[in-house]
Structures are given as C-alpha cells and as structure tokens.
Amino acid sequence: MPQDKEQSEFDFKAHQESAIAAYLKVQAFYNDLATAVQLIVNECLKKRGIKVHSVMSRAKDAMSFGQKAASPSDEDPTKPKYPYPLEQITDLAGVRIITFFPSTLADVDRLLAEEFDVVERSDKGEQLVYEERFGYQSIHYLVRLSRSRADLAEYTRFHSAITEIQVRTILQHAWDEIEHDIQYKSTLTIPAAIRRRFMALAGLLEIADREFQAIQDADRQLTKESRRLVDKGQLGGIEITPDALRTFLDKKLGPDGRISDFSYEWTTRLLKKLGFRTLGQVDTCISALDDDKLSQIAAGSRQGQTTRFEYMLLAGMGEEYIKRHPWNKYAWFISTETRRLDKFKSAGVSVGVFDPMAEPPLETASTGQG
C-alpha cells in the first residue's frame, strides 16, 4: 500500500459532525443529570448552613461538544484528542458553585467528599502556574452519585454517570468570564507591557479575595465579642450594629421572634441619626424607664420589642427625639410624637432630656473592655 494512503489525513469535520449527532441523542440525559446534582448540592448546602452566591447547572452545548471532540491531540495534531468523545469528554453534565469567600471553598470541598463519590479533584490555579498561563484559580471535581443515593429509584439511571463540578469564588468567576475575551493566554507570547498589567490585575483580584475574607473574619470576631460584652453588661464601648442591638434588646426587653432583620437595621440607623454611638449611651438613656408602662400609655397594649424601645427613646430624650428623627419633616409625625410625650407626662412619667451628642463615648470594646 502506498505511503500516502497509510497516512491519509484524518477528517476532523466528519468526526465533529458524527460526535454532535451522537451527543444530541443523549443530551437530555445529561441535562437531567446536571439538574439532579444541582438539586442535591443545594439541599446539602442548606442542610449544612453553607451560604454561597449561586449554584448553576447545564448540559454541555452540542456545538461546544463537537468542537471539543474535534480538537487535535497534543501528541499528534493529525489525530483528534478525543477519538471516542462520548466516553472521553467528562464535562457533559456540569455544575458550578460560586462562593462569596475563599474559606467557603473548604466547606464545599468537605461537602462534596461526603455526599458524592469524587473520582477526580484538580486545582486549576496550580495548573495555570505550572503551564505559565494567565488565569484565576478554581477547583474542578469529577463526581458520581454516592452508592446510597444512586440506589434510590429517582437516581438509578444516573448510577455511573460523571458530573463535573466547578467551585470558585465570585471574584475568581469574574476573572474566568472576562478571560474568554483575552487574546493572549501565555506569558511566553504576550507583550511585556501587557504582561505586567495582567499580572497586576491577577494580583489585585487575589488581594481583594483575601481582604473580603479578612473583613468577614473580623466582622465575625467583633460580633462574637460584642455579644460577650452585652451578656456581661459591659456596654460602654460597644458600637451600635444590628446584631449588637438585637442582643442588647433581647436581654433588656426580652426576645421577640417577630422582629425582622430589617427592623434592627432601621433601628440602628435611627439611633445613629439621633446621635448615639455606643450601646452604653443607649442604656443610659433608657435605663430608668419601664417599656411595658410606656407601651400601655402610648398604645393601650404591649407592643413589639422595637416599638417599645422607640417609646423609651422618646421618653428618654423628650423633644430632642422628635427634632432629630428622620421623619421630623412630616407634620403627622411631629403631632403624633408630641401627643405621646404629653400622655407620658400626664401619666407621671419623668420625661428626660438625654442628648447622646453631649455625652462623650467610652473607650471602644476592643481597647477599653476585656
């Protein structure tokens, strides 16, 4: 047989068309698989209390599959990288988990290891560094359903099927989305001036990820410390935040599960508008007042926690409360609060004139309270 016959060119176009035709027959299966894995991941995240930005799923696009199937081999460019694409391409069903913070990546890693059969785990960030390519890290997993889950009737047909799961932070995801439009991918081919800018940008994104994590860690520590100090009654240096205010009011007035996070946000903004800077000032303002008595006088019944608290602020600050309140431009608000003040006075309540802006705040909790 002639030499040129033995080495006839491989028909990449025919291979691509054949691959697409075969994949279209099973695409619906992989779409169902991806959706099932997405639902399982969401349920497991919820059960463990792991908060993420999003969980998305998809079956691979048919044209994308065909192009990948027809990509040339790294070892021999005259042959396809995937001669048997349906068996060799592993991202036919894909799930992407995007987290807010880097620390959550470890939580998701443990979840996947415990809830799925992890066939392969690869850190793309390490691979990019090794290959001297630009990019931003993410972690890729190839998983199967666990044996116990695959034995369930609704999952039996997915028993041995592979799903690719990508896990990255929201900043890593932003880089990956933008990277598709970047012309140069290798440090060996990019012009030096542009290379420096790419490296600076990658560094900035990594720093931003770390700083967001550091901020979250610091916020958790401050929240923990504030709760501890409120529990001990050391209020002088505690900055007013929604969580600190909730903890303070739960202890001072009793818990009220009806109060929403928004209400504590609103009341925190109100306190700062009134001039309060620490919970110590708040406590000084309302310490001599009876919230139940004020509620009965103002409304004829026991009101919710934050409403009773606002009555106490009104009685503790008097007319200054009305003047500084963000609703002081409304005539109805002024008349309503003025009538309440009059009711308090008529009932024998000693209305105060506390001015938090005239009260120097004590040392902050981090420096003045142990």
Q: Total number of β-strand segments?
A: 5
- How much strand? 5-15%
Could you name the CATH topology of the largest domain?
Answer: Beta Polymerase, domain 2
CATH C-level name of the largest domain: Alpha Beta
Helix and strand pattern: HHHEHHEHEHEHEHHHHHHHHHH
Description:
There is one protein chain. By secondary structure, the chain is of the alpha+beta class. The protein folds into 2 domains: 3-190, Beta Polymerase, domain 2; 224-368, no CATH class. It has 18 helices and 5 strands. It has helices at residues 3-6, 12-24, 27-48, 62-69, 85-88, 103-115, 124-130, 147-150, 170-179, 192-232, 242-253, 261-274, 279-286, 291-299, 305-317, 319-324, 331-346, 365-368; strands spanning 54-59, 93-99, 116-123, 139-145, 163-169. Strands 1-2-5-4-3 form a 5-stranded mixed sheet. Helix 2 (12-24) packs antiparallel against helix 4, helix 11 packs across helix 12 and helix 14 (291-299) packs across helix 15. The radius of gyration is 31 Å and the shape is elongated.
